[in-house]
């Protein structure tokens, strides 16, 4: 391996910063402490504006409790919490940054009320936010909002094709505020990602040709080579990306770190989560489809995810009339007799029933899954408590506009993402909640930097990253 050639600063938001970006991990997994410190170290810190924490007069986190009776009213409460939290986090991060680096905010376009939240935060933080990163969906309106508040925007895409669609429809009108394009690798990044139906979740593709294809699209549309592409997902040692730096094929490149900043002194995630990151092996992060967003996402394969995997395996197709191979009447788990399955599936259903999975819940795909009484009660309660945290939720059939329903049956193979992310971020059981991480998280265990339980400050981490390690 040749010696690490090093990064050069870029000009962003009118000042020189290191082209290293902290990934904005939603629901309190990044906050002002980590993002402010990242900016103070000369990089681009990212405050998550996805249900961020706000604080009471004594500085204690305000629990996000919902009081309204209807889902639509709870959705309004959620938006208010999100705006108050986002504003509070930006202001605190900006103070910590102390004039160094830059502060971005990150939103998921698929979160409930995304536009209202983004506008609400930007309205109350004028002059503090340098740019907005936004992914999870096709955020066509991002450029128009950026223009209204005069901030940079950094769309998150997983292919040149997605960028072309955004550019043609909207972004070409606000080209001067396009500060960078984030390429989030669907097989390497943690959290939700943009794996398309044409791509195989089990066959990772090399990011280099994909990023080169993205640059080719940007060039074809007249975007200058000094608008960086931010490589996100799987970035650990920069020396492993030596060939990308100062590479005329790729143009300007920056690097995003989502997983590594989780294990810092300023990282707000609970100690148990930090400790667990040190134990992971290759393959312990699962690319899965259980998220109620409908997107693929990557998280640690803990008992919570394993239970969802097992639930989906206790699944059989059914029809309402005897037809084709569906010749056997289902006699366990359901009320009534109008469920027809294959004889083989009837035998499986009886086995599950005998093992305590006594309730069959219908899915939107004309299948049913078998669950215990406790699982059924939790699913039903979580669906009742829905506060509309997504623009479209597969788990509760909520939609944040028009008639407020997706028109599809609620899907019991999924889960309430708001509940589990709030719980794990605020000290809940790391085995019974969703624990997002990128696929390189196993490297904590292998990287000598973290040996003897060493936990760096953000400044120590950024300094280390800039050496190539």
Give, in spatial order, the strands making up the sheet with the most strands: 3-11-10-8-7-6-5-4
**Approximately how much helix is present in the residues?**
25-40%
Mean pLDDT: 93
CATH superfamily descriptor of the domain at 10-281 and 440-466: Aldolase class I
Tally of alpha and pi helices: 13
Please count the beta strands (DSSP E, at least 2 residues each): 18
Distance separating the two termini: 13 Å
Based on the coordinates given, report the CATH architecture of the domain at 10-281 and 440-466. Answer: Alpha-Beta Barrel
Radius of gyration computed on alpha carbons: 23 Å
CATH topology of the domain at 10-281 and 440-466: TIM Barrel
Outline the low-pLDDT stretches.
Answer: none
List the helices and strands and how they pair.
Blueprint: E1 10-12, E2 15-17, E3 20-22, H1 32-40, E4 44-48, H2 71-97, E5 102-108, H3 114-123, E6 131-135, H4 142-149, E7 152-157, H5 160-169, E8 181-184, E9 191-193, H6 207-220, E10 229-232, E11 253-257, H7 271-277, E12 285-288, E13 296-300, H8 303-313, E14 315-317, E15 328-329, E16 340-341, H9 343-354, E17 359-362, E18 367-371, H10 373-384, H11 417-425, H12 443-446, H13 458-466
Parallel strand pairs: 3-11, 4-5, 5-6, 6-7, 7-8, 8-10, 10-11
Antiparallel strand pairs: 1-2, 9-13, 12-13, 14-18, 15-16, 17-18
